[in-house]
């Protein structure tokens, strides 16, 4: 096979153009970020034609990338696995030798090493929700926490909800993939579904919509369920509100880090993420999934509701100990 010369920038642009038609925007952004290091490496080594890539060159890049970024083992694996996908694509356009992707080396890691186990513990979530119920009822903080904990939804899914997606009669929320108006779902059309919500959640949503929701539209003329003065709540604002409300001192608990609130930098709202106990939206989801599994809700039910496969639940979300799992299985099997 005769290779066709191609420079790194052109190859990168063609690759991204293809990805944009088949994967979510966030995935495209990740590919852009990770591949930008390859472009930098090629430039530093005057590699103007990717035909010159070899197994040895790729190993040199791996070592360079590890040192430049001070990568963890997990991050290094993510980088090299993404590179392998790119090299395999290069093979498809005759830019590199066939099967070169098999020479991309990546560290072996255990499922536990590949799992991010930060989560909002059940006890903390219950304390937080009790506080919000009493002191910030039907506030934006309360609605966000209530939905995240009781539905196990991703931040993007909650943010995508419109008022019309809430059906108080059926007590349900409808999730729809609408990328053209800035609210895509992670799994696109596969993520579309209707989920039931409890009477307790509905009461909060009803009061939020009637009493406290700002009656504004977003930039596309839609009626967001969660609003701020600027329209639909932004991703950054959503994250910041989670960090703020999840600081233990914010919901009436003693500081677990022996800090004095008057001297703690994390008590400033914009620095809330500096509190070691504060969490972003995803730990709400991870904690909720683990909570429902611990409450003996079948894994298939949790997976369908949260829109996640059993394998992903086991690897990234389920924080039950092996003993907890054993005892739950015992409950099902003892009477058989």
Automatic annotation (TrEMBL):
Residues 6-91 form the Core-binding (CB) domain. Transmembrane segments: none annotated. One of its GO terms (biological process) is DNA recombination. This is Tyrosine-type recombinase/integrase. It comes from the Archaea. GO terms for molecular function: DNA binding. Keywords: DNA integration, DNA recombination, DNA-binding. It comes from Halorubrum yunnanense. Residues 115-330 form the Tyr recombinase domain. InterPro entries: CB, DNA_brk_join_enz, Integrase-like_cat_sf, Integrase_catalytic, Integrase_recombinase_N, Tyrosine_recombinase_XerCD. CDD domains: DNA_BRE_C. Pfam families: Phage_integrase (PF00589).
């Amino acid at each position: 096979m005769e290779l066709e010369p191609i420079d790194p920038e052109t190859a990168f642009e063609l690759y991204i153009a293809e990805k944009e038609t088949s994967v979510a925007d966030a995935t495209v952004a990740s590919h852009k970020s990770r591949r930008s290091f390859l472009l930098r490496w090629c430039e530093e080594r005057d590699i103007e034609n990717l035909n010159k890539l070899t197994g040895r060159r790729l190993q040199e890049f791996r070592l360079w990338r590890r040192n430049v970024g001070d990568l963890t083992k997990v991050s290094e694996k993510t980088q090299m696995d993404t590179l392998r996908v790119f090299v395999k694509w290069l093979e498809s356009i005759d830019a590199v030798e066939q099967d070169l992707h098999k020479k991309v080396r990546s560290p072996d890691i255990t499922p536990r090493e590949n799992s991010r186990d930060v989560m909002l513990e059940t006890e903390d979530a219950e304390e937080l929700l009790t506080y919000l119920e009493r002191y910030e009822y039907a506030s934006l903080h309360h609605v966000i926490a209530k939905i995240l904990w009781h539905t196990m939804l991703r931040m993007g899914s909650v943010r995508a909800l419109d008022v019309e997606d809430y059906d108080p009669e059926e007590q349900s929320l409808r999730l729809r993939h609408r990328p053209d108006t800035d609210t895509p779902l992670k799994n696109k059309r596969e993520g579309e579904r209707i989920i039931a919500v409890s009477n307790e959640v509905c009461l909060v949503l009803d009061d939020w919509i009637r009493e406290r929701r700002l009656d504004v539209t977003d930039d596309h003329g839609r009626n967001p369920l969660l609003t701020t003065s600027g329209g639909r709540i932004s991703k950054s604002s959503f994250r910041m509100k989670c960090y703020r409300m999840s600081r233990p001192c914010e919901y009436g608990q003693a500081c677990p880090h022996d800090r004095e609130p008057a001297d703690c930098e994390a008590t400033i709202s914009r620095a809330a993420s500096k509190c070691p106990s504060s969490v972003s939206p995803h730990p709400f989801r991870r904690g909720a999934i683990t909570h429902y599994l611990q409450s003996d809700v079948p894994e298939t039910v949790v997976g369908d509701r949260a829109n996640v496969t059993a394998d992903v639940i086991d690897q990234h979300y389920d924080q039950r100990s092996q003993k907890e799992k054993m005892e739950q299985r015992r409950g099902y099997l003892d009477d058989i």
